[in-house]
Design brief:
The chain is mainly α and about 130 residues long. About 50% of the residues lie in helices and about 5% in strands.
Length: about 130
């Protein structure tokens, strides 16, 4: 099995935005008003939705694998083929889980937690 990558962290109670330097020219590094990034929050919600589904799939397949390995269930040579198939499905599900969670984690690592609040500037396609 693979270890899960780090999960995106939701906004914690009492968490404050970064403190920027104040200069005469406004920029993202010197913003005075910050908001928690909605794109980062979307990744937090996505992680929280996907992880329970993957856990359910994993536990269901693990349960079926344990039953297939039991000689009480399969007392025929054909049972070994089912055990091999289930082992392959478990490996594929582990790889799928790793790919999904890694993609969310990587995108969260590349997405800033805080962004400057809108200054009321017009947007082309809002």
């Amino acid at each position: 099995m693979y270890a899960d990558p780090p999960a995106p962290q939701p906004l914690q109670p009492g968490e404050t935005p970064p403190q920027g330097r104040r200069s005469g020219v406004p920029s993202p590094e010197t913003a005075t008003a910050w908001q928690f990034n909605p794109e980062y929050q979307r990744l937090v919600v996505l992680w929280q939705q996907v992880l329970p589904m993957l856990e359910t799939l994993t536990s269901s397949l693990d349960r079926a694998y344990q039953l297939a390995k039991s000689r009480d269930v399969w007392d025929a040579p054909v049972g070994d083929r089912y055990v091999e198939d289930l082992a392959e499905w478990r490996a594929r599900l582990g790889q799928y889980r790793q790919a999904i969670l890694t993609s969310i984690s990587d995108q969260a690592a590349d997405t800033p937690r805080w962004v400057p609040a809108d200054a009321g500037a017009p947007h082309a396609f809002s």
